[in-house]
Structure formats: structure tokens, C-alpha cells
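User: Please work through this fold.
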Amino acid sequence: MKRILPLYFLPFYLFTFLPFLSSCVDEEEYTDTPSGNFEALWHIMDEHYCFFDYKKQTLGVDWDEVYQRYRKQFNNSMTESQEFEVLANMLSELRDGHVNLYSSFDVARNWSWHEDFPQNFSDTLYRRYMGTDYRIASSLSYRILDDNIGYIYCGSFNNGMGEGNLDDVLTYLAPCNGLIIDIRNNGGGQLTNAEQLAARFTNQERLVGYMQHKTGKGHNDFSSMEEQRLKPSKGIRWQKKVVVLTNRSVFSAANEFVKYMKCCPNVTTVGDQTGGGAGMPFFSDLPSGWSVRFSACPMYDKNKQCTEFGIAPDHWVQMTDEDLSRGRDTIIEYARELMRSSK
């Protein structure tokens, strides 16, 4: 078995994990056979995955029972595709969007966190609201709506946004009566980018959550909870009302962004519950050369509650067929009405 490697989407916290990273080499080796790959994958997850107790409590997942059930399905006459399929089925028991198996021919994934729910977003309506003369600054698209409410769409935190970008965006939107930040369908990316944007909406350092890291191979071998704190930006900061729009496709770093924003003043969240994804993902390799990604370090909100299965909005709003037929985005319009009624 090869070294466990972190996916550095949390560089801000890197030094927290140095003791963990320095001892992430497994001594036991497994053969490159279907049975050997099964044993390797099951043990990687058993020793390093961080949500076993939570998934047992919420989903009834017993990882030892999973081992017994799936071990019977492996034999060394399986084809590569059959082996991959059964390994993927085993991982899907966890219903974790951060758990993937990567081969040269496929990527195993479980997207039930958004596939089983209404989309609550329309590309057609988005283009209608944005028009063609909207502005773009890095990963942010923005404009002023006709009722003098600012609108920012952020569909990903993958790409960095400079402090100058954010200063320019907020300066342009400064005359607006309020601001809508739409992160629907934002599947995450670099957490530092999410922190950078959230830092524009607080004037003081705030406790926004907690995190832990694994300290051993046992399911409950974790460090004590360590604070996540959001510091205010040194650049331009927004002082008026903010509404953040969410749907089930808000995941990972975007889920954390919602967690941060709910701790800031003058912020309201509208839409559907987020998709979750509250575990820092790491990578490891199987004897076959396939790679597995898995949640290794759990994160919590400021009340020490796990957000793995999402964060509820302050106002639950679903897009309606009637509004769709009229060319109206129900969730955007609800946010605009909140702004007008709060004057």
C-alpha cells in the first residue's frame, strides 16, 4: 500500500496536519489482484476515513459488516471492470461526495447529495437575469439589477480571486441597497478562496467552526477540536444586507463558505439545504495503480455540529413551475423581496 496524500484544498490549515502527514505510510503490502485490491481499499478506508461513527448513526453503515458482505464478491477471475464496479459499490455505502475511486477508464462517485433533490437553478433564467453586459472579475460574474440590488454569481472556488478583484467588485456595487451572492451549483474548490470572499463581510475576527484530524488507525482516533476563525479582510468590506442563495449542489468549500457567512452580520441564506461535504479529502493508491479519495479530517460549525450532510437555509425556497414559465427565478425574487422589506 502506498503513501496517503492530502488534497491541498485547505492550505490555510496545512500546519495543523503535519504530525498526521509525517506518519501516513502503511507498512502492509497487498497483491495486485481483485482480492488484494479489495483488502487494500477496505483497510485504507478503515484506518483513515473520518465519518464512520456519523455514517453509522445516520445511515446505519457498519464497516465491518460491509467487509464481510463484499469480501464474498471477489475472486481472481474477475475482469478489471467487474472489480472496479464492486469496489465502487462498496464505497457508495458511505454516501460521501468526497469518496471517489479513480481508474484509467472511469471515476466512481456518489452524487446522491444533489441528484436525489430538485435542482433549484436554471441556466436559462440565470442568463436572463445576467443579460449580456454583466461584468466578470476572476471567478465572479456580477451586475446591478434594475431595483438597485447587487448580484454576484460564484459558480466555483477553484480559481483564485485577487484582493484587487474583490475591491473592484465591491466598489462598483457600493451604491446598491443590498447584495445577493448566488453560489448555487458551486461544487467547491480551494477553501482559501471561500475564506477570502467571506472575509469581506465581517469587521471582526469570528469563530466560524471547528475541525479535527486523525491521530491513529481507530475509528475514533481524533485530535481535540481546533477552532476555525475568520479574520476580516484588509480590503473593502461590505456593510449592508447580504442574501446568499443555495441549493443542493453547493458542496465542499462552498458548503464551508455558507458556514462562514452564517456567522457574519447582516447575512441571510435563502434556497435549499446545501449538499454538505465537511471532510478534508485525502488520496491513497491501490496495488492496481487506481487511486482512492476519501474524507479524512472532519469539520464542524460553530456549535460543533457536523455539516457533512449540508446546512439548512434561513428561508427554505423552491423554484416553482409557474415562475419558470414566467421567466422568474423564485429564489432570486424571494431574496429581492427580503431586501426591499428590510429597508
Remarks:
- Confidence is low (pLDDT under 50) at residues 6-27.
- The chain is about 30% helix and 20% strand.
